[in-house]
Amino acid sequence: MADYEGVIGLEIHVQLKTESKLFCQCPAEYGGKPNSRVCPICLGLPGALPALNRAAVEYAVRMALALNCNVNSQSAFARKNYFYPDLPKGYQISQYEFPLAENGSINILGEANIEKNIRVSRIHLEEEAGKSFHDMDNRHSFIDYNRCGVPLIEIVTEPDLGSGEEAYALLNKIKRIAEYLDITTGNMDQGALRCDVNISIRRAGDTGLSTRREIKNMNSFKFARKAIDYEIFKQMEIIGSGGKVLQQTMLWDEKTGITMPMRAKEEMDDYRYFPEPDLKPLEVSLDWINEISRNLPELPDEKLDRFVKDYKLTADKARALIASPNLADYYEKVVNNSGDPVLSANWILTELLREIKETDIEHIKLKPENLGELIKIIKSGQISSRIAKDLFKQMITTGRAAGKIENIVKLNQISDKKQLGKIVENVLSLNQNHVKMYLSGKERLFGYFMGQVMDKTDGRANPGIVRELLTQALKYSKGQ
Ligand SMILES: [Zn+2]
Questions:
Q1: Rounded-to-integer distance, Cα 335 and Cα 134, Å
Q2: Overall pTM surpassing 0.70 (yes/no)
Q3: Residues in Cβ contact with 473 at an 8 Å cutoff, skipping those fewer than 6 apart
Q4: Angle between helices 164-180 and 221-240 (to 10 degrees)
Q5: Is residue 112 over pLDDT 70?
Q6: pLDDT at 405
Q7: CB-based contact 335:372 (threshold 8 Å)
Q8: How many angstroms separate the alpha carbon of residue 269 from the centre of ligand 1?
Q9: Which letter does DSSP use for residue 112 in this model?
Q10: How far is CA 284 from CA 52, 62, 75, 318, in A?
Q11: Which of 147, 273, 329, 438 has its CA 20 to 30 A from that of 110?
């Protein structure tokens, strides 16, 4: 089945972090005492009328512009009807025929790190449903309506993705863009980003689309990647054995690592959409779009290019640093204080990210200014890399300020010429052969002697003084 390829489209749901819900004044924030953040509008009580949240529209337009979409000057809301306990109104207000934005595109790094353009067919606004809990009690299910009416955007792509890996790259990129645009908490544990996946396969080189299967409601990008690759494999197996792929909605079972068809009854997607009679068409003026466009922050790809160009970083390092807006900001503040972009990048990507998770960067005690100062000191050669690493560990746990670091350095460092002189003598007398080689021209051995002295002092010797003492001692040996 090597001549078959996967054909994958995504529907990505991004929860917007507005203060209030999409159509009422209830707080949209995650959590809260169950059913405490509700009102007649989000509960759909008779006579309650929705009023659209302007901030949610602005957030959606930000994403539309970031994904190069055309923002429609007029779009409309529709009722998507279905019966489910977590949906008190019996319908969800969404956009159907007339979405907010259409025809966008986004580049991802696809298979073999080759850039691939993925078309975005539409972005629309809709509201969240509530949440059911089936595992709190043997006999009862529970419902929390706090999430009802929280604003979402749904980003629908064309089936331009070829594998789980590419879908994973796209999902991560959309998440990153949403974080840069500051429109979502990005919190996966709280379901702030989820996706539905459509998968079919076709002969490589064909352009038509075959019957697809759908996996709904994936709230982990890693699971989405696994589920897609499993589906591609499974569909190849079905076709390879002479079968036919049927249009079905599948469920991913993360325990067994396979997809299973949902019950047939739930496959019937008949939402009987009709225009929402309680809301006027949504008008977005060109002036407003232009204003939002002017105020867009620097996006991840732009930042990546700038980091490579201005800071002379490799693309891989720059890519790692722009992974989140907080990490990128942190890096730039470190550079401002250290004056060395490459050394700063290395310290952040190795030492710092070894100690903390990237998502914790905004909460760490070590201020970027202080790390910058440390890197400046390292660069000046005043301290050995071993002391630098020890200091760094102290700084990250205590959040100690840069001014005090120099004191610690001085306290820790051995600058006593007598004491160091003895160690230097000792090192040279233990390494007579190396000394001879050095004296006969192998000057690179100087570093070896330095290393020996640093080793014997646990890295605490003042490198400047050691260098001075070694130079003197070796000159003396030469004279003898
Ligand atoms: Zn409400």
A1: 51
A2: yes
A3: 421, 424, 425, 428
A4: 150
A5: yes
A6: 58
A7: yes
A8: 27
A9: G
A10: 13, 12, 8, 36
A11: 329
Q: In this predicted model, what pLDDT tens digit does every residue of 340-395 receive, in sequence order?
A: 999 999 999 999 998 887 777 888 889 999 999 889 888 887 777 777 888 888 88
Give the distance (Å) from ligand 1 centre to CA of residue 41.
5
CA 21–ligand 1 middle distance (angstroms): 7
Distances from the Cα of 195 to the Cαs of 226, 281, 471, in angstroms? 14, 27, 65
CA–CA separation, 250 and 266 (whole Å): 10
Quick check: 11 and 154 in contact, CB under 8 A?
A: yes
The model's pLDDT over 20-67, given as tens digits with 9 standing for 90+, comes to 999 999 999 999 999 999 999 999 999 999 999 999 999 999 999 999
Ion ligand 1, residue ranges at CB < 5 A: 24, 26, 39, 41-42
* Res. 402: pLDDT tops 60: no
CA of 469 to the centre of ligand 1 (A): 76
HSE-CB for 461 with a 13 A CA cutoff = 26
**Pair of tokens at residue 376:** 């400046």
Ligand 1 centre distance from Cα of residue 80 (Å): 19
Q: What is the rounded distance in angstroms from the CA atom of residue 123 to the CA atom of residue 121?
A: 7
The whole-angstrom separation of Cα 146 and Cα 133 is: 13
Instruction: Enumerate domains of the chain plus CATH numbers.
Output: 4-290 (no CATH), 298-412 (no CATH), 417-479 (1.10.10.410)
Helix or strand holding residue 104 (H, E) = strand 101-109
Rg (CA), the chain: 30
DSSP one-letter string for 81-97: E---TT-TTSEEEE--S
